[in-house]
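Intended use. Records like the one below are meant for learning the mapping from a protein sequence to its folded structure. Do not use them to infer anything beyond what is encoded.
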Amino acid sequence: MSILIFNTGSSSIKFSLYTPDLALLAEGVVEKISESLAVIQFEQFSATPCVFSSQQPTQVTDHTQALWLIFDWLNAQQQLTELALIGHRVVHGGTLFQQAVLISPVVIEQIAALSALAPLHNPANLLAIELVAKTYPDLPQVAVFDTAFYHTLPDYAYHYPLPLALQEQQQIRRYGFHGTSHAYCLQQAAHFLCRPADKLNLITLHLGNGASISAIEQGRAVDTSMGMTPLAGLMMGTRCGDIDPAIFWQLQQSGLSADEIKQLYYYESGLKGICGENDMRAIHAMIAEGNQNAQLALTMFCYQITKYIGSYFAVLGSVDALVFTGGIGEHDAEVRTRVCQNLAFFGVVIDEAKNNYGTGELFGIQAVGQALKILVLRADEQKAIATQALALQL
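Structure written out for the chain above:
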């Protein structure tokens, strides 16, 4: 018996294959989908280890092609012969889904109806679900929702200052995203600090091509940077994040259509809009070559994160730990330094040696003697999804 987990993002698909006791059998990723050069890395951990990576320029035109690459490789490794369950990350569950659910035709219809709220993600999530349903019609599938973690937000945090009747009619509210990742941060931080999760106040930072920050009070999410859609909050790889709403009208008056503005906000803004590149590794390389726009993009990104952290200190009153995760959060020591450099007043002080050279699934980078912990966590949303999927099946 094995459990296959798909974590489908806006420009990538990660997968992990587990035994029922969550021992890892295989994992991999297809990144930079729909871009000129994809990154493909698959690895098997069974008695006959096998690693596959793209050795020459490869274009993966869409998520469907990426999924078939994954299935073909797993079949070639004979890893799907005992497949018993597939779990999926689904970004937007609206108010319908506050926990993981078994996928049915009705659930598929409901996820599709929510796609307008997460146009980069829900359609891609559905592609994986529908492909599995056609290929393995008798195989149970579970949906685990990013938004579910945020059903604990208080009303004053999830409401917008719009007419309440309109918000109820249109299902307008702050939903929050990356909830599976933030919940995993809470679980792992509690274990690392030897504290009950419901006794912890945390600020968790999921920093990747999509980026979000959450305030967690006594183990419950009380605020988060993303809003009704994953467009809000921080500037991201290609998404604009929070901007003046009147910019929309200004762009309309300049001749752009609503669809063109949507394309601009989701795909052509953020880091990419400032310097032409959405991969932080490439941005660092551009900065090393003296590119001023890349320097501006990095500075803006870190500045916005710092502002959110400061506001969440005010929300929580006291904080036990900051937790960095996600591709940038895990691997980019310079971003962590820049984010924290003006937060010493709150007790946020980094040990640069630990920050630059620390290793492991979860490690601390705070200076010696600091009560407030600064943790770096290797993201493992797939394991968190697998845990929820198995619990539902049991």
